[in-house]
Amino acid sequence: MDNKIDSTINTGRKNGINNVFENGEWWYLGQANGRRRVAANKNHTRMYVNGKYIQKTHPLFKPGHYKSFGDAAFAALERDTKIKQGYVYAISNAAWPEWVKIGKAIDAEDRLNGYQTSSPMRDYKLIHSVYFDDRNVAELKAHAIAQGMAPRKNEWFKMTEEQALEVLGKVANG
Fold this sequence. Notes:
- The chain is an alpha+beta fold.
- The protein has helices at 69-82, 108-117, 135-147, 161-172, and strands at 8-14, 17-22, 25-29, 35-37, 47-49, 52-54, 64-66, 86-93, 99-105, 124-132, 152-153, 156-158.
- The protein has a five-stranded antiparallel sheet, sandwiched between helices. It has a four-stranded antiparallel sheet with strand order 1-2-3-4, with no helix packed on it. A three-stranded mixed sheet has the order 6-5-7, covered by helices on one side.
- Helix 3 (135-147) crosses helix 4.
- It is elongated, with a radius of gyration of 26 Å.
């Protein structure tokens, strides 16, 4: 008994076009038995991972063609590094009352929401954010000013919320 599965689906003539799905790819059958692969990237609202279609209801859905879900996640990071405009912000958390984080983001509220998801108490607070045409340069200036005022651990500074406001004000006013 032959267990081979015929992987060819002929859609017939639909809207004047002959399409065949064969071995995981769509083919256009033109006149004189010509074969051309149908471009898979015509629809920019769909997501494909390793050649497989991902439904819009999938929690990690993001339009595009990716080799893995990790590639899809890092594509957003690459996009974020290319965009200069955005906010420099200061956030705090009641769990560490003496520490303030000074960072950058395209959208400060969205970044705050990202922190909230990792906190069961949802106790991160946006102290203040300022929009800059080049958030990267502004963040570097803010870190330099804050480091001169308080001890530092990465982007967290041992300072009061008032001091963080002062730092953002100095950067905004040049």
